[in-house]
Structures are given as structure tokens and as C-alpha cells.
Specification:
Chains A, B: Pfam families: STAS, Sulfate_transp. Chains A, B: It is a multi-pass membrane protein. Two copies of one chain form a homodimer. By secondary structure, chain A is mainly alpha-helical. Chain A folds into two domains: about 400 residues, no CATH class; about 150 residues, Transcription Regulator spoIIAA. In chain A, helix 5 crosses helix 18 and helix 8 packs across helix 9. The first copy, chain A, is elongated, with a radius of gyration of 32 Å. At the A-B interface, helix 1, helix 10, helix 14, helix 19 and helix 20 of A face helix 1, helix 10, helix 19, helix 20 and helix 21 of B.
């Protein structure tokens, strides 16, 4: 290993440039280096590099093809690329199946009561909820890359879909048209998701910040829980709006005669049971199966109880009828033209994006925990295909929700095959067991949903955000309040708007700082962070902390001039010599545009009038190239471009002193 | 001067922390420093700091009050703050007046024909154009801080206003309502401008990038020049649209019978004269007065010529009648209620913003050239007040245009008083000279406008942008094509949209780079820019080039992992030891949010599984504070936070070698 790390500080000749070494403790000759211009790329190369970075961020799907000369092998690679199941299916073992089988049974017991409840949120018949846990979970494992996501209807998406759809069609008066629009929206949700994946536009969902998602989910959970009060309290007349004020009014108006004590008794006792098992499951990870199976147990016990006591005759609302049989085809029900197609498209895009955000966020979390790679673009195509197929088989928008996937993961799933096990159980239920739900009280479904969505309120995360970043907390709060006090769509809009505003704001006011010298080193650091750094007399050293673009160029120029004025006054009071040099540390300036260069030129002219020389330290590759093309380096002189602040000080500082 | 710069390298004791010195050439003890936590600010202080930075970027208007205890002096300061004229008026001298007087006469001779022409662009009677060069230039000098801006109607704003207004009301069928809507729009344009200044929201106009302005202005100039072909060719039937395709169609349709050769002859010969003087003025700065007075000379000569030959009887269109007398009050004409108020408001906001952008950009250019300070927020209030007063005195939106201000500056204006001189000349014209314009051919006005707007096409700047920054050029081209092929409003929208998209894109994909060691130093630099840097075996050093926010957090994590994989393979090929350390250089990471910290945690976990240690070098004040609040430092261990990359390598690299 020639020229490798030497633990001492000997043999420092200049010949080891090709090799590699740890720098010695005494470095004398950094001034022998000059700022380097990176090799100039052709326009095409530069452009294609940027495009590749945007669309193929984490991976390059074509890379493996290049290394593979044979055509048959390339075809096999392509197939594997399209159907990840071909990869993991080959290594599938009985041991893995055991894990998947148990996990599949567990999520099936959870999903059946949830699906019936969620379909109510979407104002759709209960069997449509169950359909969504039959077909889509069969499609996903073929295409998806996550091992933990469990597919099916999800609370927030159901609520959003229900609230958007009922703006267009009344689900009570026009149930068929409503259903048709729901399938249309599902179809376009799938198309949207698949298209985003296909065109590798996955980065779009990254515009939703973590904080905004926490706030939005918390708000949605409260809204959903409030909606459940209808079933929980046995209220018949309930508002169609989702905001907290309309719902509370609706509840208080019905307080005197609209509440049903039998219903409340059943709902409250089972909610207590569910929350207790949930608490136990959280405390002792081994007992998590209690919380996973508690919903099904509640359904069985309460159904039996209602059947025995005939409580449905005392005002306890029951599910009544769930249609028997598997998903009927629904391709003919989708609007492929006319105004409803457009409406369905709009609703589908919104619901599809939300479903996508949830699934990708959840998928990433578990992939991170188990350390495997989730391919965002493939996930989108998988979810999209799943929803398109779902829309043709009477399902509404499905996705990989957090609660279900967490149970799946904790129950020990090994691959996406647990979805297939769940799907099989749901198939059997649809074929043989639906009559058993006849006496299931609606109240129990409300209790199950309430206990499920309470897990979406992540107040610990909100507190964490508050402690770490106040601005982020504002974003979180804005999204939360938007959902709770207005509507789900408004909350969504607000969440996107706040996120974008935050970026724009931060692009407008980059940070600048004054630097000082760490005594006995050539290191220069922010004087606010390191109060014991020392000033170099006759010099002002300013650091700019982000790219200089048109949004910030004018601000940066003016802020630097203000630092200069402040520092001039401070140094005058200390009887330091006249300021003659302004060093701008550009390490952190990743890029600059023509407005930025323009601002630097203005800065240079303003300094020239005051007889102060402008020195730039450590410009990066893009910056130095643009400064050269713009002839800015000619303007200020090449000797004013310095490799480090330390070099610049070493080179120019003595002059400042000689002049005193 | 204790502890000041020592030119040698002696007396390095630890006691000079309070003083200041140039670092010695041999620095051995940077490892004795640790990354410092900045003093924690209270929530209020942090928030008010951010607000202050956003709204009071370059100045703090309250600063001087704090230093001024007496009430009368504070009142005087406030007055001076509101009326900058009180400041510069006190030092006004006869010498300055001489300059202002000559400049005022020069711009008056330029403005009279221009105003008549511009009012045609806005589909308003010619006297309204002249009104705009009488009242507004009297208001501006009282409030404005620019010494060079010359006020009055401006080509692009006139075109925009005309095209927006005629979408609402037909100026031929309903001239009175049209005029009323124009004054309403002017009123709200003024209110918008003043409000932006009052609430210190001036940073909003910074979202329009230099490149977008160049493109937009070039496109607008072409559109305006094309519009002038109506007068230039003597066409009677002309399209109302502004896009190039409609205009060209209109011209070719009328080619056979609609063109008037006498008109073309007059127009072409005077355009030749104007362009020739413009060329001379550009070549020899001393002869600029030729180009400044050429328009008025053209008007006089051509008017006399038409009067003698009675060419108006041969189809040469003339101005005919300009109403005599000064601005009539127009407060009663403004719509303060009803649907036209809303429309006027919308149009006013758009036109007001464009007028503002132009004036501030022009004002800044000249302030930079003469090195005085332009206060953006005061400018906005001045322009706003001027337009509100203008709307009450029969003016339409006025601003400080580039052409007029350049002539003003070159003619030697010293203060804004040249505006008052110009205004006086326009007053005399309105009172006594309007009948003289009776025989002025429209064609001459077209020639004057064409020669004026040609100066707005800055192809040199466009070429410069192309050379320096390709992405910026795309923005420029987009704005240009939007205006030329669609409409002015669409071009504006496109210009804002492209600008914002550019920021968002760059916030999504920050740059990362692999660093290597400059041999014989402790400096680490980008291996792409400095190809001769050397690798440290067993270590990967990555630098992130911008703040890590939710838009980029996931990308940054995945990109770092990809660097790691690539580098692992490369080092394996070179038989270097297994990689055990990943150093992330955070100098350039100005800020991080909760999503960013989340991504770092995921990175840490992924590295943990591969038995690689994560080291962070030089986190800035905001980053270190947030990492601490989020307990990330506890997670990775405080010894993993290093002051510089060099320190980290020195501390950890030998281990990597010992393990081989």
C-alpha cells in the first residue's frame, strides 16, 4: 500500500500526491495551492447530470444493464426490475412462510372490522371496504418492494374521499352515482400514482415536510374520532361537514333526545377494553397480539350480545346487511367521459397523493428499521397498479396504512406475502361469513376506529418538533388547525403552502456571519458560536451560508456592507488600523446565478469607492466557473481568490499593519 | 495595540485570546478546541431576530431613534424619515440646481412625444399621458430617495394596462367607463405599492430574478414595437391581441390595401434619424443630447411638414386634438364599489407590481453607479403615494422608467428636483402648446416609441447569462417566449412560476461532494475540483452543500449512502482497509429541520448496521443547537463531533490503519 497512512510525521516529500496519507501535524505550505477550476463539462453532460440527479436520486436503474452483455440476462433483469417478487420469491422458504402466515392472520382479524368502519367514513356500503382488503393485497406483493406494508382501506384517505365525493354527489339520494364517482376517483388515483412512479417524479411528495405530516395526521385523527361520535352516541341527525365546530354543534343539538344510552354503554365499555389492550400491547411487546386481536374479539362478543338481547330493537344501530360474495367487476361503472370524469380525476389526484405520502412514509420507516432498501418509484408504480386494478373490481382507494403495517411487522411478517394470507382470509369472510355481521352494532365499529386513529396523534413528535425547531412547529400547528377548524382539503392546501413558503423564505434570507480566528490555528469560525475567536485588525471576514440566487443576492450584498460598517466602527473604537480588506468566505456558497454575480460586482464597486479590497476565499466548483465566465475574476484580480481564509489573511494582513 | 498582528511566528502563549493576531505558520493545537454551542437565545429573541432580518434587511430605521433622547429631535428625525427632501433640500445649492435644470429640460423634450405615444398604448387620450408627467413628478421628489429616477408613463406598464383594461371594457365603445377603470386601477396600484413599502414587504419583488426581467423586458419591447407597426404602416384595422402571431396576421392581411406609403415614408425616415442619433449618442457620450432631443426635433419637423403639405388629407393619421389645460380632478371617477372596483383592484395590483419592479431595478442601478443608498421601502411608499395622487388627478400608472432616467442621469441631474423642472415644462405645454400638436403624425410617435423600446432588448445581457448560467438562460427564454407568443400577463405569470420552480428545484437536490486531502496540509477539498487530492484509507469524507430541509433530507441521506458504496468499491479495488468511518462535513449546512435530523438518524442506523462510525465535522450554530435538542449528539457520542475534517482524520484515522 504505497503512500498509505503514516502514524508519525516523517517522510513528507512532494511525491505522494497519487497515494494517500494523513496530513502531518505541521502544515506549512497550503499557500502553494491555488483555487482550482473543475474540468469544464459540456452543456449536454451538465444538463443530463442535473436531470439524472433529480429523477434518479438514489439509484440508477440502467447501471446494472451496462455491465450485463447477454440479451437473455438483460431480459431477466428487466423482468426482475418490473416484478420484485421474482427476486425475493426465489429465496422464499418455509420458515419465512410461517412468519407471513401468522402475521397475515393477525392483520386479517384487525382489518375486517376496520374495513367495515372505514367504508362508512367514505359513505360507501360495508362490503366495499372488505373488497379493498381482498384484491389490492393480491396485487401489491407482485410489484412492491416493502416487506412490511399491509394494504387496504385507510382512515384518513377514506375520510378525505368521503368528504370530497359528497361535495359532488349526495351519497344517500344517489348511491349508485356516488359509487361510480368513487370508482372513477380510485381509477385516477391509481393512474396518478403509477404515472408519478413511471416518470420518476417521486420527489414531488418530498415537498410535504415531516412536521406538516405530523400536524395533518393529528388533525385528521381528531376529525375522524369526532365523526365516530355519531355511531358512539347513537345520533341519527349528523352534520356532513368535518370541521370541529359543525360537529360539536351537531352533537350538542342532539344531546337532549338524540343520544341512545344503550349504544353509549356498549361503545364505551368496548372502547375501554380496546384502549386497555392497546396499552398492554405497548408496554409489553410480547402481548401485542392482544391489541391486534382485540377488535375482532370485540366484534364477536358485541354481535353475540346484541343478538341475545335484541338491543337493535332498543335503538342500537347495527350493520344489518353485508352483501355476500367476492368483488363484482366495476369497469363499466367508471366515468370515462363527461363532467364526472373531470371531477373524479381531481378527487383521484388528491386522494392518490395522500395515499401515496402515507404509504411511502410508513414504508420508509419500516425499511429503515429492518435495513432494507425501499425503491420509492417502484412503490408508486405498485400502489398505482393496485388502485387501478382495485377500481375495476369495486374497491375504493387503498394504501399501506401505519396501524395495519405496524401490526403486520410486529406479528413477524417476513415478506409481502402476508398480504396474500390476509387476502385469503378476507376472501373466505366474503364468501361465507358476512351474514354473521348482521347484528354487529355500529357503535363497536366507532370504538374500533377511535382506538385506531388515536395512534395517529403523535403528541410526542409534536413536542419534539417544538423543542428542536420552532418554525417547523408552526408548520405542524398550521396543518393541524387547518384540518381541525376548516376541512381536510383546506388542511392539505395549507400544508403544501406553508411548506413552500418556508423554502422561499429561507431562500430569501440566507445567514451571514462574521468570522474570527481561533487563536494559534489557521481556522476561522463564526464569532457568535465561538466567542473566544480573535479579530484580525484591518480585516473583516464574512461568511455567507447558502447559495446566492436572485432571491437573496441583494440582501447578501447589503448585509455584507452592514457587517462592514458595524465592524469598522467597532475596530475604530479599539484603535485598530483602517479596514482595508473584506474577505468573503464562499465555502458554503454551493451555487450562484447571474443576479448573485451582479450583486458581487456591486459589492466590489461599493468597496472600491471606500478603498477596501474584496477577497474571496474557497469558492466551490460551480461558483468559480461562473465567476470566471462572467469575468468577475478578471475584475477583482486573480490574486484575490484564495484557497482558505487563513491563506488570505497570511497574504494580505501584514500589509494592513505596515500601513499603520 | 495588545496582541495585534505579529509578522513572525514567535510568542505563542495561550493568553492572547482577547486580543487578535495572525495565526502562525505552524498550527499544532486545533484539536484542543471543541465545537462550541452558541449562547441559547430566548424564543422571542430568535423570532424577533428572524422577523427583523426579513423586513428590515439592510437598515434598522429605529436605530437612530434609540440614540436620540430629545423629543423634538426625534420628531425632526421622523419628519426627515418620512420626507427625505428635508434632508437633501437643506444642502441644495445653485450648482446643483444648474445640473437639475438642464437635465429637467432635456427629459421634458423627451417625455412630451413619448407620453403622447404611450397613452395610445394604454388606449387613453393623449393629454392623459401628459398629465402623468405633470403631477406625479411633483410628488416623487418629496418622498423618494433616488436622485436619478425620472417619473412619468412608461412603455411596458402602458401596454400591460391597456391590454388588461380592454379585456374588461372596450375603449372605443365606452371611453368614459374605460377611463374610470383606468383611474381605479391606478388608485389601487398606488395603494398596493405604498402598502408593500409600509409593511416592509419589499422583498416580494426580489422573487423576480434578473434573468426573468431581461427576458420579460425583451419580449415586451418586441411586442410594443410590433404594436407600433399600426401607426408606422398607417393600418386602420388592427388586432387587439398583443401576441406576435395575431399581430403578424393583422399586418399581412392589410398588406395589399391597408398600408399608406406616405405614412411609411415619414415614419421610416424619422426612425432612421432617431436610430442614427441614438447610435451617435451611444458612441460618444458627450453627444448624448442629440439622442435626447431628437424625438422633440422629429415631432417639430414632421408636424411642420404635415402642416405644409397637408399630408393628413392623404391618409397620414395625425394626433388631431389634445385637450388644453391642466389635470382635471378625477376622484369622483374612481369606482369605490361594485364589480369594477374588484376588477380595477386586480389590474392595479398587477400593473403596480410591474411598475415597482422597474423603478426599483432602475433606481438601484443608478444608486450603485453613483454610490448612494436607495431605500427600497421608502421608494415603494413614494411611488405609491405618487400613483394615488395621480389617480385623483387624471393620471394613469406612472413610474421611473429606464430610458427616461438614463437620459436624466446623463444630462447631469444632481437631485430629484429635475423632475420638478420637467413637470414645469409639461405644465407650460399643457397650458399653451397643445394646439401645436394638431398636425403631428401618429407615425412619428410610433417611430419614437420603436426607437425607445429597442433599448429594452438587452441581447448582450442575454448572451452573458447564456455563458454564465444555462439554467438562468432558460428562465430568461421562458419569460421572453411567454410574452411574445402569449400575452403580457401570461409572460408575467410564467416569469414568477419559473423563478419559484427554480428555487424549489434547488432546495430539493442540494449538491454533495466527496472530499480528499490536499497533500501536506490539513485542508480537505472537493475531489472533482481538486483532482490531485488524496484519499484517506478506511474513511469516506462527504460534504453537503446546503441546508438540510424536508425537501432534501431523504435525498441527502440516500446520496451519502451512494457515495459510501461507490467509495467502498473503489477503495476495495485499491486494497485499502475496510471503511470504518464516514465523515460528513457540515460547514455549508446552514440549517437543519426535524426532517433533516430524522434523515441523519436514519443514516446513523444504516451505518451502525455496517459497522461504520458517523462523524460530523464543523456543524454551525443552528445545526449544533438543533442536534443537541433532538438528542442526536447523545446518540452518536460527543466525541464524534469534530471541529474540522482534519481533526477528525487525525483522531480516528490511525485506528483504521491499526485494524488492518
Amino acid at each position: 500500500m504505497p503512500g498509505a497512512v503514516s502514524d508519525g510525521g516523517e517522510n513528507h516529500n512532494g511525491s505522494d500526491i497519487g497515494g494517500s496519507r494523513v496530513p502531518s501535524h505541521c502544515d506549512m505550505d497550503s499557500t502553494s495551492y491555488r483555487v482550482s477550476f473543475p474540468p469544464k463539462k459540456s452543456l449536454f453532460k451538465e444538463f443530463s447530470g442535473a436531470v439524472k440527479d433529480l429523477f434518479f436520486a438514489g439509484d440508477d436503474p440502467l447501471r446494472q444493464y451496462k455491465e450485463q452483455p447477454s440479451w437473455s440476462k438483460r431480459a431477466w433483469l428487466s423482468l426482475k426490475h418490473l416484478f420484485p417478487v421474482l427476486e425475493w420469491g426465489r429465496h422464499y422458504t418455509l420458515g419465512k412462510f410461517k412468519g407471513d402466515f401468522i402475521a397475515g392472520l393477525t392483520i386479517a382479524s384487525l382489518c375486517i372490522p376496520q374495513d367495515i368502519g372505514y367504508s362508512k367514513l367514505a359513505h360507501l356500503p360495508p362490503e366495499i371496504g372488505l373488497y379493498g382488503s381482498f384484491v389490492p393485497p393480491l396485487i401489491y406483493p407482485l410489484l412492491g418492494t416493502s416487506r412490511d406494508l399491509a394494504m387496504g382501506p385507510m382512515a384518513v384517505v377514506s375520510l378525505l374521499l368521503g368528504s370530497l365525493l359528497q361535495n359532488e354527489i349526495d351519497p344517500k339520494k344517489n348511491p349508485l352515482d356516488y359509487k361510480r364517482l368513487a370508482f372513477t376517483a380510485t381509477f385516477f388515483a391509481g393512474i396518478t400514482q403509477a404515472a408519478l412512479g413511471f416518470f420518476r417524479l417521486g420527489f414531488i411528495i418530498e415537498y410535504l415536510s415531516h412536521a406538516a405530516i405530523i400536524g395533518f395526521m393529528g388533525g385528521a385523527a381528531i376529525i375522524i374520532a369526532l365523526q365516530q361520535l355519531k355511531g358512539f352516541l347513537g345520533i341519527k341527525d349528523f352534520t356532513n361537514n368535518t370541521d370541529i365546530i359543525s360537529v360539536m354543534k351537531s352533537i350538542f343539538k342532539s344531546a337532549h333526545h338524540g343520544w341512545n344510552w344503550q349504544t353509549i354503554l356498549i361503545a364505551a365499555s368496548f372502547l375501554g377494553f380496546l384502549l386497555a389492550t392497546r396499552h398492554i400491547g405497548k408496554k409489553k411487546k410480547k402481548l401485542f397480539w392482544m391489541s391486534a386481536t382485540a377488535p375482532l374479539i370485540s366484534v364477536i362478543v358485541s354481535t353475540f350480545f346484541v343478538y341475545i338481547t335484541r338491543a337493535d330493537k332498543h335503538g342500537v344501530a347495527v350493520v344489518k346487511n353485508i352483501e355476500k360474495g367476492i368483488n363484482p367487476p366495476s369497469a363499466s361503472l367508471i366515468y370515462f367521459s363527461g363532467p364526472f370524469m373531470l371531477k373524479g380525476f381531481k378527487i383521484g389526484v388528491e386522494a392518490g397523493l395522500i395515499a401515496l405520502t402515507e404509504a411511502i412514509a410508513v414504508g420508509r420507516t419500516f425499511a429503515g428499521m429492518k435495513d432494507y432498501k425501499l425503491d420509492g418509484n417502484k412503490e408508486m408504480m405498485a400502489l398505482g397498479t393496485m388502485n387501478v386494478v382495485g377500481s375495476l373490481t369495486s374497491c375504493y382507494v387503498t394504501t399501506g396504512g401505519f396501524a395495519r403495517s405496524a401490526v403486520n411487522s410486529m406479528a413477524g411478517c417476513k415478506t409481502a406475502a402476508s398480504n396474500i394470507v390476509m387476502s385469503t382470509v378476507v376472501l373466505l369472510t366474503l364468501l361465507f361469513l358476512t351474514p354473521l355481521f348482521k347484528y354487529t352494532p355500529n357503535a363497536i365499529l366507532s370504538s374500533i376506529i377511535i382506538s385506531a386513529v388515536l395512534g395517529l396523534i403523535d403528541y410526542e413528535a409534536a413536542y419534539h418538533i417544538w423543542k428542536v425547531d420552532k418554525l417547523d412547529f408552526l408548520v405542524c400547528l398550521g396543518a393541524f388547525l387547518g384540518v381541525v377548524f376548516s376541512s381536510v382539503e383546506y388542511g392539505l392546501l395549507l400544508r403544501v403552502a406553508i411548506s413552500i413558503a418556508k423554502i422561499l423564505l429561507q431562500a430569501t434570507r440566507p445567514k451571514t456571519a462574521l468570522l474570527g480566528n481561533l487563536p494559534r490555528t489557521t481556522i476561522y469560525r463564526n464569532i457568535e458560536q465561538y466567542p473566544y475567536v480573535t479579530t484580525v485588525p484591518g480585516m473583516v471576514i464574512v461568511q455567507v451560508d447558502s447559495a446566492i440566487y436572485f432571491t437573496s443576492s441583494n440582501y447578501v450584498k447589503e448585509r455584507i456592507l452592514r457587517w462592514l460598517e458595524e465592524e469598522e466602527e467597532r475596530q475604530r473604537q479599539q484603535n485598530f488600523p483602517q479596514i482595508e480588506f473584506l474577505i468573503v468566505e464562499l465555502s458554503s456558497v454551493a451555487d450562484i446565478d447571474t443576479s448573485g454575480i451582479h450583486a458581487l460586482e456591486e459589492l466590489f464597486r461599493a468597496l472600491e469607492k471606500r478603498k477596501i479590497q474584496l477577497i474571496l476565499a474557497n469558492p466551490g466548483p460551480r461558483v468559480i466557473q461562473k465567476l470566471q465566465s462572467a469575468k468577475f475574476i478578471e475584475l477583482i484580480g486573480e490574486d484575490k481568490i484564495s484557497l482558505t481564509v487563513g491563506d488570505a489573511v497570511k497574504k494580505f494582513a501584514p500589509k494592513a499593519v505596515d500601513d499603520v
